[in-house]
Amino acid sequence: MREFMVLVGQIFLISLVQTILEVFLKSENRDYQIKIINIACIMGSLYLVIQFVFTYIIKELTSIVHMPF
Hints:
The protein has helices spanning about 1-25, 30-65. By secondary structure, the chain is an all-alpha fold. It has one domain. Helix 1 (about 1-25) packs antiparallel against helix 2 (about 30-65). It starts with a helix and ends in a 5-residue tail after the last helix.
């Protein structure tokens, strides 16, 4: 449960940084840079989720269900 709360905190921090950067760039009408920031934040969040799944969830599932691989 502690690891999940760390994951939620990291994703919240990414979304906070994304929002702050969007506000600063919105005033100067830089749509292209905002799209790049959005994609980078989504990719960072996706990386954290995939890392969490492979580190903790898959490990727990394999301890419950014994798979041949």
